[in-house]
């Protein structure tokens, strides 16, 4: 069974597929067929890579963090600087790919849901660049909570649709966006924000993010003349993680860690540790590991970082866990907040709270390794968006 490629039905081992209501089967099959052609077209790939270079600013540096390395003691810690991308995170890598595919398919509009707004902003950016319309569905509760991202999306020319059905949060926004898509798919592409959802998205978003791992592999060989001892990335849906991991899955000597949010603790209900505590189920058109109740309803989840509080995970990750190729571990909110402050203080880099989960695991792993070991941490995004929230947290619980 392949670690890297889904079968024709979009399954990675026993996870994945396209589990859709009848009215969405045809639209999604059209996307799969179009992507299958696009990914083999050298012109499509060349245009994608050109934009990564001139617009996103790639390649992103692989930075040896000397003061962090010294303080942790043990392995050398390198950071893959996705925080330096245009818009400040890895998400632009796949939204550009999705927007290019939409253009190629003759679509005029992109539609998506967003929770905290980060996917919405990255998609609205790609839509502006390519002259596509963009419609972002967002729970009314999130529209209130994430006001700055709503302003950004609107400045970028997107229409933000507040959804007040149900609990007025992400799940309701997903339903609402899918309903509009089912009606308008002739001229619209639904653009998913991670390696989740029905086939082809887990494979397609992974392919667009795989630039991260290809660059990191070449950069570490150049810098150290060897492959890393370990890779670490945070896992929400799993796109930044799989982007880094893909280039190393077949290198058995490279240990790989995906870090999930343990929130307020695995023994409490306030976490989003899907791989650690979830079970097999169905969510958003895929068969995967899900945090769910007895009726298969997704559980409410929590993390200090809104980009990783998702009750499911991409199916390729579920498969990589099952075959034992990747170790899925977790970091609590408290460990994450500490890692956030440590990197800011030692390296002058304020990381996203999402990425700080990976840094928290690096702080546990590095001291157990030797000075000639090498760790690469995927710094998936920058933390400017998090500073007000962190100030509030630190005000409530001074160090
Ligand atoms: C959205 C986001 C994540 C989580 O998404 P994945 O698909 O798991 O990568 C992680 N880091 C940042 C900075 C994000 O914006």
Write a structural description.
The structure is a single chain. With 399 residues, this protein is α/β, with parallel strands linked by helices. The protein starts with 10 loop residues before the first strand and ends with a helix. A six-stranded mixed sheet has the order 3-4-14-9-10-13, with helices on both faces. The chain has a four-stranded parallel sheet with strand order 7-6-5-8, with helices on both faces. Strands 1-2 form a two-stranded antiparallel sheet. The protein is built from 16 helices and 14 strands. It folds into two domains: 12-51 and 90-206, Rossmann fold (3-Layer(aba) Sandwich), CATH 3.40.50; 58-88 and 210-393, Rossmann fold. The chain is globular, with a radius of gyration of 20 Å. 44% of the residues lie in helices and 17% in strands. Helix 11 (239-245) links the parallel strand 9 and strand 10 (255-263). The structure holds pyridoxal-5'-phosphate. Pyridoxal-5'-phosphate (PLP) is lined by residues 89, 91, 118, 194, 234-241, 307-308, 352, 354-355, 380-381. Pyridoxal-5'-phosphate (PLP) binds next to helix 11 and helix 15.
Q: Largest sheet, if any?
A: 6 strands, mixed
| Whole-number total of structural domains | 2
Silhouette:
globular
Q: Ends: how far apart?
A: 48 Å
Gyration radius, rounded: 20 Å
Q: Can you give the helix content as a percent range?
A: 40-55%
Helix/strand order, N-terminal first: EEHHEHEHEHEHHEHEHHEHEHEEHEHHEH
Helix tally equals 16
Regions with pLDDT < 50 over 5+ consecutive residues? none
Number of strands: 14
Instruction: Give the strand order, joined by hyphens, for the main sheet.
Output: 3-4-14-9-10-13
Bound small molecules, by name, code or SMILES, are: pyridoxal-5'-phosphate
Would you tell me which CATH topology of the largest domain applies?
A: Rossmann fold
CATH class term of the largest domain: Alpha Beta
